[in-house]
Amino acid sequence: MRGLRLAPVLGGALWAGFVVYSTLPLVATTLFSLSRRWVDTALPEGFSVESYRAMVQEAPFLPSLGRSTALAGGTLVIVATLCILLLTWVHIRAPRLGPPAEVISLIPFALPWVVVALSLVRFYGVLYPRILNTPLLLLLAHGAVSIPFMYWALDNNLRAINARLLYEAGATLGARWDQTLRYALLPNLGPGLATGGMLVFANSFGEYALSRLIVGAGWATLPVWQASLINRDARVTSAITVVGIAVAVTASLAITVWASRLRGEVAPAAGRQG
Amino acid sequence: MARPDALDRPWAWGTGRRGAVSRSLTGLGPASVFFLYMGLVLVAPAAYLVWSSVSGEGSRLTLERYSRVLTDPFYLRGFQNSLALSLLTAVEATLAGTLLAATFAYGARLPFRRSLLTLTNVAANLGGVSLAFAFVALLGTNGMVTIILRESAGISLYPRFSLVSLAGLNLVYLYFLSPFAFLVVLPAFRGVRRQWIEAALTLGATRRQFWWHIGLPVLWPSILAVFILTFANAFGTYSTAMALTVGRVNLIPLQIGFLFGEAAFDTELADALSVLMIVVTTGCVLAYRGLSRRTARWLR
Question: I need a labelling partner for B141 at 20 to 30 A (CA). Which of A38, A170, B33, B231 fits?
């Protein structure tokens, strides 16, 4: 079935253009990070791993890498816990909570993250000023804005395995609630948790707006440090960028593998803000 | 189905006293943790922002900040830039995403379909500081394309083009919003079944007639929905714009970020700007929800 007549030519050209556009910036960054000198020649004058060595030797590198990793890990734990508690309950016991939960899970789309940061600082500045400028507030913010990634993945997963039926089967056989959750539900939630989890981790790891506005240089994450270097040291920035892109790309690749086991494969991509 | 009583209330800890509040909380069960968390971290602070933007001295209501924001040429310019950039980006991204989806679903016999799908996923998930720098490495004053054009063809991109401009931001936003639009609209194209086309052709319709009378009417809500989502996304984008321009372009999210720094100075102004942004993006999300309900029935 051929569909549109022009499609073969148009489609091929369009996709070729897309592939070039999507890969060129990545190629440029990688080449730049590996080049020795590249100013007045069409191609780099030579290659070296000097920028990576420089990156590792910078004092802020390891601490900021550690902070970003810890932040992303903590966010993942919060988001997974919240979503498992919410969605198993909604699917099994309280379907009427589904619509309100869905509306709430859409809030991170409706609020630009710069607005989320401002509202947190203003609200807790009045209510509990001691939490301002702390990583804890940043972690709470990341936990909230990352909800959609996990929500959609887990929601699709629970629907696909027909969680309610599993629960009722367990109940009929005399299993306690926690046994059903542990032995019947959780083992089947692997694809959803993995897909959502990778998105949550990658998003939190590379997140800049909230990190900059809530804690800033006081607790510089990798992207905050990276942004402060953009106009200062292009070599080191290029190396960090390759690290950042590698994390994001790894997550995306893992997701497309795991997501094929879920039916709602594209929904999770919709949550991030540039 | 009858359930044993103990199973009926797995999380009903400590329900000795049964006030109205505790009853409604146990009704929410473990889901209450989620609602409480989102309420404390997103809903209450946002509500406070709205309240704070209109509360004047002595708890009187005032629209003074809004009139100040909406008559200040600087902020008006910011809104104009933000809206123009998001509109342009959304039109382009929707067009690109729709064409990509159409050719992916019906047209060209594309090689490596799985890899292409993966690539769109990767691109849609890039953004922020790393993407901003990747474009500096590509098109900055010493970027790859700039250098190659200069050294091998004698063409100088600068100063006619600059990455630190609305046009530059447009290019960078398109990088993640086109594949994003593609991923969101693709299911709608899968909803237009090949059998429908075959049936129409069998009954003597032309392809053009099919797309005009059936294909497009089924697809347009999805395409409009994608347009709204990409618009809202571009409108709210802070990270990419800030990392790339360091605030040298007047956009509303960046202005809100700047007002932060001078916290004690004019916070209510930032509140008013934020509420105006919330109005725009919330309108978008509500419209999107309405539209996706409309399309959901075709996508089963």
Answer: B231
